Amino acid sequence: MSYVCATCGEAHEGLPDLGFLAPDTYLEVPEAERDARTTLTEDLCTVRADDGDHYFIRGLLQLPVHGETEPFGLGVWVSQSKANFERYAAEEEMSPTFGWLGNHLPHHEETTFLLRTRVHFRAGGLRPTIELEPTSHPLAVEQRCGISLERAWAIVHRYSPN
Question: What is the pTM of this model?
């Protein structure tokens, strides 16, 4: 099956990864206040809020797909401590760290926002992989047990009509 890439506009074969442009905490800041209270790049985000500063990095949450060799990837945001955020931004070598999932994934009825995660950093400029705490949450179960190819395509089509 093919799809048209929202980034390059080209047709590609196979299952695409999906990505969230920002953490929900960033999106909650009124647009008129974002320049003063936030920073956002493709991989890093900070938000100044009443309860303090929040730090996020973008990573890849992978879901195994039954019968496929490649997992289905979701580019999500996870919180980090200020120290870990700064180490990551400085491209230091890092051991896995704790983080909270910073996105509500609308294809799940039960909220995914603030699920507990483990961030695994990778060399070579690759985004870190995100491992959910092994709970009974449907997304955590999908990450552990995998999903059907039909489920993966249903998720893709929910976000992109192409």
Answer: 0.90
Measured CA to CA, the distance from residue 143 to residue 136 in angstroms comes to: 11
61, 130 in Cβ contact below 8 A?
Answer: yes
Query: Residue 146, Cα to own-chain centre: how many angstroms?
Result: 17
- What is the DSSP annotation of 82-134? HHHHHHHHTT-----EEEEB----TT-SS--TT-EEEEE--STTPPPEEEE-S
* Residues 103 and 18 sit within 8 Å (Cβ to Cβ): no
Residue 102, CB-side half-sphere exposure with 13 Å CA sphere: 32
Q: How far is CA 62 from CA 49, 97, 132, in A?
A: 30, 17, 10
User: Taking the C-alpha atoms of 9, 69, 59 and 162 in order, what is their torsion angle to the nearest 10 degrees?
Assistant: 30
Phi/psi of residue 90, nearest 5 degrees: -85, 5
Distance (Å, rounded) from C-alpha 135 to C-alpha 120? 18
Contacts of 141 (CB under 8 A, 6+ apart): none
* Contact predicate 53/110, CB 8 Å: no
At 7-27, the pLDDT tens digits run 566 765 678 999 999 999 999
